[in-house]
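Reminder to self: tokens first, then the designed residues, so the page reads top to bottom the way the pipeline ran.
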């Protein structure tokens, strides 16, 4: 399949690598790096991206910023930026790509462990993750032409050591394992699923 991977960070790079190893054609997209440039907070840039790419079989989103802050200290800008990026940014990836995605194609979005677990200053992250997962479950019932949509929900990444102090007691997961979950979502027939990589779960 021809897969568009949005996000060139740790997860996006791992997803691109795994897909390439499986023999799939990969198109990389990032704000500042990758074969193509797009900003998921800018609907116009997404529409231009997908129109320029033409046809493709899958879209994997590994992009979206969240700006954490204690609830009483969180600013309007932190809320708005988080919702616009990881939240509506991913929704708009689906909306912009849909006209160009092949019949039977797939979308795979990203949420995270804060949907299910509580850490300090996690209210914004939890809210945005619930938005993403709720969108995936609902959109799965409405997407046309046999198109599927799923979500990968990782815990803190092993490679992201700067974030480990914010997740005390959480067992990190490697980006390679997260990438395998993307492959599972993209290469198998399920839809409306949230694939959780939470080693804190019993």
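Designed residues (202 positions):
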């Amino acid at each position: 399949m021809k897969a568009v991977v949005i996000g060139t960070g740790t997860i996006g790079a791992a997803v691109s690598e795994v897909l390439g190893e499986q023999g799939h054609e990969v198109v990389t997209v990032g704000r500042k790096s990758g074969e193509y440039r797009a900003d998921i907070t800018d609907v116009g840039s997404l529409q231009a991206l997908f129109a320029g790419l033409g046809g493709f079989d899958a879209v994997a989103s590994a992009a979206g910023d969240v700006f954490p802050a204690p609830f009483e200290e969180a600013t309007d800008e932190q809320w708005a930026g988080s919702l616009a990026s990881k939240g509506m940014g991913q929704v708009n990836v689906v909306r912009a790509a849909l006209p160009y995605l092949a019949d039977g194609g797939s979308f795979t979005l990203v949420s995270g462990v804060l949907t299910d677990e509580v850490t300090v200053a996690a209210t914004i992250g939890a809210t945005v993750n619930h938005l993403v997962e709720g969108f995936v479950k609902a959109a799965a019932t409405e997407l046309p032409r046999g198109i599927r949509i799923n979500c990968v929900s990782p815990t803190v990444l092993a490679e992201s050591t700067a974030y480990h102090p914010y997740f005390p007691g959480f067992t990190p997961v490697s980006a390679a394992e997260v990438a395998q979950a993307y492959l599972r979502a993209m290469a198998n027939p399920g839809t409306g699923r949230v694939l959780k990589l939470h080693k804190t779960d019993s």
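The radius of gyration is 16 Å.
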